[in-house]
Specification:
The protein is mainly β and 185 residues long. It is 3% helix and 57% strand. A hairpin with an 8-residue loop joins β3 and β4.
Length: 185
């Protein structure tokens, strides 16, 4: 006969809402984290801020933990070193990500990968390259670490590639190296 589970204990793998989330009904709308990010590519600097929502899919394994999230970001790209004047470009992104916390590194280091949809307006161009579409994909790889006594902050080093995946040509793409600081509520 199987042992009975206490009613007040969540089942393994269950996702539970906090009392305040349940009380106000806005739990799914309120992000769990916010971030500031700065990055650079050959002739452009990028700055963004955003919010992150954890998704319910998580898995524990003998070698670590997998978790998923989705983020929304708003940023600005600023070209520099151009023959013509510098020009700002607005960037809005929506990106699901998969994160891995390896047990071998103490559970506070992580690796992350994601791919999402972005709008860069007007269509990005420098003296040397031109995107043919405002809609682009952004895919990233990151390594990071949780910080602080309560692990409510993170610092990440990221590499992100933006391109339209061949929807239209030219499609030169742009590669950024980025630093991200995250604060969890």
């Amino acid at each position: 006969m199987a042992a009975a589970q206490r009613i007040d204990e969540p089942s393994p793998g269950a996702v539970t809402a906090s009392a305040s989330e349940a009380a106000d009904g806005l739990g799914a709308l309120v992000p769990a984290s916010v971030f500031l990010q700065a990055g650079a590519a050959e002739h452009v600097d990028a700055y963004s801020l955003g919010a992150i929502w954890p998704l319910p899919w998580q898995r524990e394994a003998s070698f670590g933990r997998l978790a998923t999230s989705i983020e929304a970001s708003l940023g600005q790209w600023q070209t520099h070193g151009q023959r013509h004047h510098t020009r700002p470009f607005a960037q809005f992104g929506f990106t699901p990500s998969l994160r891995f916390y390896p047990d071998a590194l103490g559970g506070h280091w992580f690796g992350e990968a994601g791919i999402g949809a972005n709008v860069i307006a007007p269509a990005y161009h420098t003296d040397g390259k031109r995107f043919s579409t405002a809609f682009n994909f952004g895919d990233h790889l990151a390594i990071g670490r949780e910080l602080g006594a309560d692990h409510r902050q993170e610092l990440e080093l990221r590499v992100e590639h933006f391109s339209n995946a061949g929807i239209d040509h030219p499609n030169p793409g742009e590669n950024f190296v980025q630093v991200r600081w995250v604060v969890r509520y």
